[in-house]
Structure formats: C-alpha cells, structure tokens
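Holo prediction. Input below; ligand is 5-amino-5-deoxy-1-O-phosphono-D-mannitol.
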Amino acid sequence: MCGIVGYIGEKDCFPILIKGLRRLEYRGYDSAGVAVFDGESTINILKKKGKVEDLLAFVGKDIPPGSTGIGHTRWATHGPPSDVNAHPHTARFGRLAMIHNGIIENYESLRTSLETNGHAFVSDTDTEVLIHLIDEVQNRTNASLSDAVQMALKEVEGAYAIALVDASEPDMLIAARKSSPLVIGVGEENEFYVASDATPIIEHTQNVIYLDDEEVAVMHRKKGLIIKNLQNTVITPEVHALEMQIEAIEKGGFQHFMLKEIFEQPNSILDSIRGRVSVSRSEINMSGIDAHWDKWNAAQRIIIIACGTSWHAGMIAEYLFEDFARIPVEVEYASEFRYRNPIIRSNDVVIAISQSGETADTLAAIKLAKDQGAHLFGVCNVVGSSIARETDSGAYTHAGPEIGVASTKAFTAQVTVLTLIALLVGKKKGLLSTQRFSRLLVELKAIPDKVQKLLEQDARIKEIAGHFVKSENALYLGRGVNFPVALEGALKLKEISYIHAEGYPSAEMKHGPIALIDEEMPVFFIATADDVYEKIVSNIQEVKARGGRLVALVSAGNQELKQLAEFVIEVPKTDQALAPLLTVVPLQLLSYHIAVMRDCNVDQPRNLAKSVTVE
Ligand code: M6R
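Structure of the complex:
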C-alpha cells in the first residue's frame, strides 16, 4: 500500500521520481505527489488526487528544478483520496516534507498532544502528524534532524516507511522503516535512491541495501550513507546485487501487465522448478527443507498462513501435504489466526505464503507463531522481503516481478513450490512410492508445455468471455484440489471486473447456493478427470435442470460434457494432484477478458493495492 521513492545526487530528480512513481503505481493509485528541493531555499510540493498521469497534467511545463526529492503514490487509509490528503505532507511552514507508507496507530493521541503545543493540521492523515512530531521533537531538543527522526520514531506505534527532506539541510535525504518495505539504491559516488521496492531503482543501479526494521538511513551528498537503529547504534549495511531484469517490469507489447503475466506462466512455472528437480535421478533438492529436516520430520502438524490468492495456494497445499506426506494441515487466514489466540506447538511447522512478502497480517501471524516456538517456513516471491527475512527458512517462488494487482503467475509459482515441498517431504518420510514420486516429477516437468497449450486457446476463451460481460453474478464450483481453484476463479473475476462471484465445493451447492441458479447465472464447473468426476457430472445435471448457464473445464477429449454445457474448455490431461496448475489458467483468462470488455482497469482495480501493508 502506497509507493515511495526518493533521490539525492547530481541529476535532476523530477523525471527520476515520476518514472519511479509509474513503476510503483501498482501499490496505490488514489493520488500522487512529489517534493523537490531547489537546493537553495524552497521545497516545491506538487500533488494531485488521481494517478501519476493526473499529477503530470497538473505540473504541466513547470517542472520543479532540483536534485533532491521524494515522491509518493497513495492508497488511502486516513482520509479520502484528495489533493490535500495526498503526500508529501509538510511541517515548519513547508520547510520539512515527508512521504510515508504504513499506518501510525497512535496518531490520534499524538495529534491531540501536538495540537495542544500549537501545531495545526490541514489533512486527515497520520503522516502529517508524524512529520509534525519530528518537527516538535527537533524544536524541543535542538537535536540534529536525524536524531530527531530517531527520537520521534520511538514514540510511534505502527508501521512506517518514510523519506523526508529539510530545506535547512540541502545535502541530506533521510529514510526509515518499520514493518513497511524500503530499499536503498547505491548509485554513483554519494548518489542514493530510495523506494518501496527495487523497480524504480533497477535502471539506475544494481546495488541495493534492504533497510531493516527501526533503522534510519541518512543519505548525504557529501558525506555518504550512515545507517543507525533507533538505539543509535551504527549499522554496517550489506550491499546486495539485484538480479531483476528491466524487461521483467515492462509490458513487453501486451495490453496489460496481467495478460503478460498470465502468458509468462510456462516460463515462471519452469523457473520455480529449475535447479530443484532432476527427473533422471528422481530427485527434488530444496535447501530450505534439507537444512531443517529435523523440524519437518518431527512435525505433528503444518499450519499454513496467508491471505487472498496466497491463501488459495495454501488450500491446495493442504490436499497435497495430507496426501503425499500424511501430515495434518490447517490453512488459516493470517488476519484471523493472529487475533484468535491459536494453539501453536513447538513441533508445528508454519508455512507463510506471500507473493509480496510484505502483507501486514501475514507478517504479524509469523511473529506470533515464532514467539510460540514453531518453525517458520516462508514461500515468497519477492527476494529480500520482510516475510522472507522473518522466517527461519524458506523457498522463493521465482515467478519474477508481478505488477498486475490480480495475482496470476505468482499463484501458479506458489502451487508449484508447495507441490515440490509436499512431494519432497512425502518422499523423505518414506510415504510416497518411488514409482508415484517419479511419475509426478515427470508430470510436473510437462506442466509448462501444457500451460502453453492452454494459452493457445486464448482467442476462444475470449469469445466465451464475451457471453458473460453483462452478468451480475457468477458461481465457480470444483472439488478436491480444484475447490481452491474455484475460489481463486471467483476472486479473480470479482476483483477485476466487479462482478459478484462465489466459489464453492460443488457438492455444497445443494446446501444453499443452488437457490441462486436461474437462466441468468453463469456457473463455471471444474470437471477434469479425477476420482470425483462422476459426482461433478451429477452437480452439472442439477444446474442444467434449473436453467443455469454452464461453462465446463474438462480434460482433453471429454465428449460427455459437450452435450450438457453451453461452453466447454478442454484442459490437457495430467495427474489429478497437479490439475490446479492447469485449470486456473482458463479462469484467469476468462476474468481478464470479461474485465477488459467491461472497460475495467485490470492492472489497477478500484480500491485495491498490490501489497497490503496495513491490517
Ligand atoms: O502478497 P501476498 O501474496 O501476501 O498478498 C495476499 C493478497 O493480498 C493477494 O493475494 C490478493 O488477494 C490479490 N489481489 C489477489 O489477486
């Protein structure tokens, strides 16, 4: 939620900030703004409700000069999207400007006490309270700005990634973080970039530092970089080399990032498998499992914590772990788990799944489980993210940057990695026969080509989508591992097309949702060949008898359902345990095309943000 970017160096910073904001816009797009210091006396603040393009139209030709600046793209928390609530916010009559991602939980009491001391506020935001607090602390203590930032942050409860500029410190940019991401790019001599993720930095430098919680970085045009924690201890930063390629964060000829990312899946699934599977040796190697095998071997239970699409990947993993490794699994919404006083034991393995690695609820659930002695394993896409660092061990999904707010390739990469883990644990525990293990590895290796075959049906899927553009509701039904796929299909449709959609296990239909079926209702059935196929056919008959509009995903060659369904999409055959990696793809494409035909902004759906760093 919210993207922040900053620059200090010798270059004109406005174009750097704007380009950075465009890259970060997936994190929030309610308003955008910049503060550019002219190097002498004035910080020019330009901000506007709406997208980065609205900000640019507002700025017009009056580009503010300066080589120190900060920029922000907002996902509103405190106060509605408006020019006045847009960041940057200021104190000291515009001489101190700050951007912020996160939530200051005690902002109301801080605001009240600051008001008592004569501070006046123009916005509804917690950010304005924080910059006034820093100003107040500096006035009260006569400390340097960086010391004042440290002291003020000690008074703050909540999450923050901040960057600020001070008109009295022309050579300085300060940044700090706690529970919200922040990356520092190290450029030419004493040139620094700051951003919520590496995407605005990658084209300027490959050298980055991931700031840790409660660290304050002072970037100085003459003196370089100094990082201290809130206890005033100097931190020696570790400089990492970025592995990301610039092409990975551009649309590459596709109309939307979401479509590009759907089409990347043959490669991203392959990347999740690469280096981990040897079919000839019938082997899976995952260092995160091997290094902590004692924990996995002793596990009496696996608890999976995640949100949204990642939670759906966790639901699929539940079937796989129970089947392959015979370990009981509980799949929890991180947001519920953390407030439920859950029973966690030291022989539990807790798997946290997150594309961004920054989801606030998942992070909080991790901390809770860690405090109670469980072994924490992270399945994250973003390298160096908070969840990747907070967990005891883990496996990256290697899907590459996912920019579209609706998760697609990250989901299939998560399912791939979780499948590998379940297979590996099952094998190491001696519960999977060599034959079954080898057969599944061969099948898994064949999945990327099968996804490619599905993508070749895009034109037909688009045509089918055209029949449902005006629908108000939709039902998605599946069983076994395809039940979470039904949930995921429904989530994809609702988040980007704003059509109300629900996913159910198909046998549950008769316990209530069947009342919704009429001739207007599209029902998407996942009916690929598996142990419960015949049961699903009965459910399909029940919908047909009530006039519902049937779309069936079937295994290649299925003739039976062609007679029953209005539309049939053939899915290449695979082992039923791996079916989700295929069945989800047509559902992603259907949602995408329906949303585009409804004129929705698929990459930036209303009210959403890619990385949910607030509760
Ligand atoms: O980054 P995470 O995987 O932790 O994010 C979890 C959810 O916020 C995310 O999956 C969300 O549901 C997506 N918009 C789904 O497309």
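The chain has 20 helices and 27 strands. That is the main takeaway for now.
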